[in-house]
# Entry
Amino acid sequence: MLLDTLYRAIRPVLFQMDPETAHERTFGGLGVARVLAESAGLRPDPILARDVGPLRFSGPVGLAAGLDKNGVAVRTWDALGFGAIELGTVTGHAQPGNERPRLFRLVEERAIINRMGFNNLGADALAGELRALRAAGHWPAHAPVGANLGKSKVVPNEDAVADYLVSLAALRGLADYFVVNVSSPNTPGLRALQEKEPLERLLGAVVPAAAGTPVFLKLAPDLEDDALIEAVGVAIEAGCAGILATNTTLSRPGTTGRLSQAGGLSGAPLAPLAHAKIGVVVRAAAGRVPVVGIGGVSTADDVLALLRLGCAATQLYTAFIYGGPALVSGIHAELATRARAAGGLDALIATA
Ligand SMILES: Cc1cc2nc3c(=O)[nH]c(=O)nc-3n(C[C@H](O)[C@H](O)[C@H](O)COP(=O)(O)O)c2cc1C
# Structure
């Protein structure tokens, strides 16, 4: 496919660049990718639609948060065939994030280490993008669009609830779902909000303020099993629509140690840890709310492994950097072929 051929041609050039410069240049070309993708018809086969609580993903692979923090390329993600599109993390205040360099590729490991620190233009700016999309009639017809919310760095943890509510007030009525992100490792103190009392306070305020829009909770893979189980209980009690697991890890499983940068690790080496923690989360949720599995997904088999663990759907980020714009439609196409042969996606999931 033309899109794939183009990406294979430019990837070596992009990978010569500093990762963040490559990211910025790629965003410049996303409009072209959209036009090519629109003509190629990459949206998922309807056999792949998945119910994720009150949402319906058009396919089991969604875009994970962090790639499009400011919501500038929603139409491209839709055209590339993502089953759902998560924007952000945005914060109440616009903020520059940490000093560069803050994004590192581990090419051999097909991994990334990042310590971006929620660089974003703020919830108001995202609201502007979403309003414009809706006004122009360009809202994706089948892929739900979520807004992932975090805490501004300048706001102390004691005032975190108010900061999340600022973002929520800006975005209310504009996103199909919200995610409360308390699991990114690069904002000092953020992950302490995963503990029982702060989490109860936070979700107890955010869920009612979302006024019926589903709220999901995103958890870290570095929590002990007991803490994960407790957080899932708090989320269900507070009325969350589901759990996203996992974010990046501060641990360094399976990496050579060649790149000992500080920050969160994602991609292939995260997968075993993420799968173990997702299993804990799925068992704790016990079918009461859906779980979206994240961490090192890069193939149809990875997706199936997570669906077989009991996840309702999956998301990916890092594999997109290595696999390029045709990756997700390729995974969905393979799953659709296998689902048809098995008599449906649920039947395929059921066959070990
Ligand atoms: C560069 C980078 C930035 C990220 N930014 C965010 C973010 O802003 N909010 C968030 O919830 N997760 C963020 N993530 C985490 C991803 O959404 C995902 O949970 C994690 O990378 C694991 O999935 P993967 O192995 O498919 O990348 C980021 C990941 C990367 C690599």
Notes: The pocket of flavin mononucleotide is lined by residues 64-66, 69, 89, 103, 112, 114, 116, 118, 148, 181, 184, 218, 247-248, 266-267, 270, 294-297, 316-319 (CB under 6 Å).
